[in-house]
Design goal:
The complex is a heterodimer of chains A (281) and B (112). Chain A has 281 residues and is of the alpha+beta class. Chain A is built from ten helices and eleven strands. Chain A has helices at 8-11, 23-26, 49-58, 113-120, 155-173, 177-186, 215-226, 228-232, 239-245, 252-264; strands spanning 44-46, 65-66, 69-70, 73-86, 89-95, 100-106, 127-135, 140-150, 237-238, 268-270, 276-279. The chains are: A alpha+beta (281), B mainly beta (112).
Chain lengths: 281, 112
């Protein structure tokens, strides 16, 4: 499962917290009663109708998969083509340019005027944002919405497509938590986690090769540590001082990694704690 | 199992550059309205070229318009429906999106 602690790239698709307050409304929609969902697996994916179609036509059991990941909650964006009210559901047909989808939302007789007014805003020709899930209710698979709202700033149209593309690429090409974590553990043995790559990983800094270290930074750090004042101090030099005395041209991460590497190579050692160093030379 | 999704009549998002590939097909095109002549509307696309839109109905009063329609020729589109996109729509971003949507590496997410 992704969404592991350190992977910021994936955590934004983790819809944890979205479901609990909404589950009541969707209770009749099937699905939610069958499984005891783990909130960590409650993903929210931005998808195109075409992607959703692909996921639906290939799925076998209860789980809906896209890009190799289970999909629970989805968000769609499209232009309303038509609307209709059928008993307890209100239906919209939306078109996002990649396809058309029927979206349903539960309504009740005692809906307030405000609710009715909200529905009146979902007029044909207008763009709406839909948050929902797929239900296998009856014989058809429907997009069952938790919420529908009109789009007022149309930059959201551009945004939705880019978000769908971003999530697709993130899940298919990079940033998977598994391999990245392995790499980070490897870091203790001298390979900095920067090599993990992928979207969620730290950005490599230009000119800094994690495999070979940065000889300029290494020699500057050693120069500072070999200076008489640093040798004279029993505690050595703090990492903050090292950062400052290398002239602010390096990041804290770079300095810390260079120190770890120099320590591995036996050129310096940590004193009070892992933030203070002294030279071995 | 029947599905409530239909992908048989897509209308891909295009800029002027990709419009030519879709003659005889439906597209979605967003542009700034630069002129109106009877039923014909001149739309400046996100990549700064002018396309003639044959409007079916009334011409909406707005700065940025999204048009869905059939591509009659590489610079003419017959409108089927349209939607005003307000006046703070970022054309540069949208143009980048059009390029990505029609990039062979990603287009399967959006159209056949």
């Amino acid at each position: 499962m992704y969404g592991g602690g350190g992977d910021a790239g994936a955590s934004q698709f983790n819809g944890a917290g979205f479901m609990p307050s909404q589950a009541g409304n969707a209770g009749g929609g099937g699905g939610s009663g069958k499984k005891n969902y783990d909130s960590k697996q409650q993903t929210l994916r931005a998808v195109t109708i075409r992607q959703l179609h692909e996921a639906l036509s290939s799925h076998k059991d209860d789980t809906l998969m896209l890009d190799g990941k289970e999909m629970t909650n989805i968000t769609l964006l499209g232009k309303v083509l038509s609307s209709n009210e059928q008993g307890l559901t209100y239906g919209l047909k939306i078109d996002d340019g990649t396809g058309r989808a029927d979206v349903k939302i539960w309504i009740s007789d005692d809906d307030s005027e405000v609710e009715k007014q909200r529905r009146a805003e979902w007029r044909p020709g207008m763009y709406v944002r839909v948050h929902g899930h797929i239900s296998n209710f009856g014989k058809s698979q429907d997009v069952l919405a938790y919420n529908i709202r009109p789009v007022t700033d149309h930059n959201e149209v551009t945004y939705h497509y880019l978000q769908a593309l971003h999530q697709h690429l993130h899940l298919t090409k990079g940033g998977g938590a598994g391999p990245a974590m392995h790499q980070e553990q490897g870091g203790a043995y001298g390979t900095p986690p920067i090599a993990a790559g992928g979207y969620g990983a730290a950005l490599p800094v230009p000119g800094y090769d994690p495999h070979h270290g940065n000889s300029a930074l290494d020699s500057e750090l050693m120069h500072v540590l070999n200076a008489p004042d640093a040798r004279a101090n029993d505690c050595g030099v703090s990492i903050d001082d090292l950062l400052m005395r290398t002239g602010g041209r390096y990041s804290m991460v770079q300095v810390r990694e260079a120190c770890a590497k120099l320590a591995d190579n036996g050129r310096l050692y940590s004193t009070l704690d892992e933030n203070h160093f002294k030279t071995c030379e | 199992m029947s599905s409530s999704l239909d992908i048989t009549c897509p209308s891909p998002r295009v800029n002027f550059q990709s419009l030519g590939q879709f003659v005889g097909k439906r597209v979605t095109i967003v542009g700034s309205v630069v002129g109106v002549d009877g039923n014909t509307l001149q739309l400046k696309t996100s990549d700064d070229q002018v396309v003639n839109i044959q409007m079916q109905g009334a011409v909406p009063q707005c700065k940025v318009l999204e048009v869905q329609g059939m591509v009659a020729s590489p610079n003419t589109v017959t409108e089927e429906s349209c939607c005003p996109f307000g006046d703070n729509f970022d054309m540069a971003n949208y143009n980048e999106l059009c390029k990505l949507v029609n990039n062979p590496a990603y287009r399967t997410m959006f159209h056949p």
